[in-house]
Specification:
mainly beta; 1 helix; Immunoglobulin-like
């Protein structure tokens, strides 16, 4: 009886460890970013932090003009040039407003600017609690998917009038986020 209980406990622990490993593997996503002369990649990793969940975001890109470039998660997982097919900024919920400039910087898809050097290369590492890769209301894997957009200009981090460009202006590159 005692041996059977130990086997049962060991089996349960092994299954729990396997489930955690499978869950950890399922919490990664990426996108290949492409535009006119622009290439890059985004890596997203969801992880537990304390009692909550965070997503690590790493963006690398080449072929951009030096300076700051707005980077946003957009509401639709499509990337037909000029990338308006990606819709507005990712902002699910009952009070959402996907207009890139009007509700800015309060969208769930708003992340920091990408700094690009004189060589046209940039890398951004950020952490967000505004989205998830796992199921739920903030999941990037909703019915129509999600895209990441690199903008021609800096995201000023302030709200503005519709089409004012304060959130980064023209869309110069796009990638559809996949698991």
């Amino acid at each position: 009886m005692k041996y059977g209980r130990m086997v049962l406990v060991a089996t349960a622990a092994a299954l729990a460890g396997s489930a955690a490993l499978i869950q950890a593997q399922a919490m990664k996503a990426h996108a290949d970013i492409k535009g006119d002369g622009v290439t890059g990649r985004v890596e997203l990793v969801e992880r537990r932090q304390g009692t909550g969940t965070v997503v690590d975001v790493t963006v690398t890109a080449t072929g951009l003009k030096p300076g700051l470039h707005g980077v946003h998660l957009h509401a639709v997982g499509q990337c037909e040039a000029p990338f308006t097919s990606a819709g507005g900024h990712f902002d699910p919920g009952p009070a959402s407003n996907t207009d890139p400039d009007v509700n800015h910087p309060f969208h769930m898809g708003d992340i920091p600017n990408l700094q690009v050097g004189a060589d046209g290369k940039g890398e951004l590492k950020a952490v967000t609690t505004r989205v998830t890769l796992s199921a739920g209301p903030l999941s990037l894997f909703d019915a129509d998917g999600t895209a990441i957009i690199l903008h021609a200009n800096e995201d000023k981090g302030v709200p503005g009038e519709p089409k004012s460009g304060v959130s980064g202006g023209p869309r110069v590159a796009c990638g559809v986020i996949t698991k």
